[in-house]
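User: Run a structure prediction on this.
Assistant: Running it now.
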Amino acid sequence: MSEQHTIPDDSETKPGAAPGDDGAKKRSGLASLADEDFSVIDAIGGPRGVIESMLPGVVFVVLFVATRDLRLTVMVSAAIAVVQVVVRLLQRQSVLGALTGVMAVAICLVWAWLSHDARNYYLPGFLVNSFWIVVLAISLLARVPGIGVLVEFVRNPATGHFRDWLHAWRDDAPLLRAYMIVSGLWIAVFALRLGIQVPMYLTNHVGWLGTARLIMGVPLFAAAIWVSWLVIATPLHRHRMAEERNS
């Protein structure tokens, strides 16, 4: 998101549900679309989650542009990511999200370090975005939209009778249509990132690439997940009501 979301986004994602600092169970990322009391703030991990996800990336691009010292940039960015986890441990707070972020940052930093090329800090994100474009495109062709599978699994895990579970929501035409639209939306998000950032990578514009990565991380994710909720909220609510009547 550093781009954090359940279907990632670039490289750092917080899948599923994680307890908030107040002890209440709050989902973040695309899994939050399964909640009736959806909140964009919760979806992006809250103010602290946003800071923790973006800070290593901000430091990386600013420090490298200022010093052109890849070794120093990698060391400082890694230290910041580790400190974030240590602080959460000391405060006895959930570290799942922070650990996920550290692992993602570590992959990016190691890639840049081993290749001796600062641009490659962003390469894992390109691969992740490409992967999800392919997965979601295949899911649309199969008319089993990936976002629908995610939301429905979070809402009602398929522990058995998978075919019945699948038909339960795919047979709801308005809901299926909404999931298809939203899956297409996320393909567009991932494709937009690649379309803008890859040319910057190829032309070695590290500063602009880092800036684009940050803008197309949390801000773009927040906008896309809000639109996603607007699309699926009504059909999903009606589907829930129908389930309650039939139970």
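The first strand starts at residue 17 and ends at 19.
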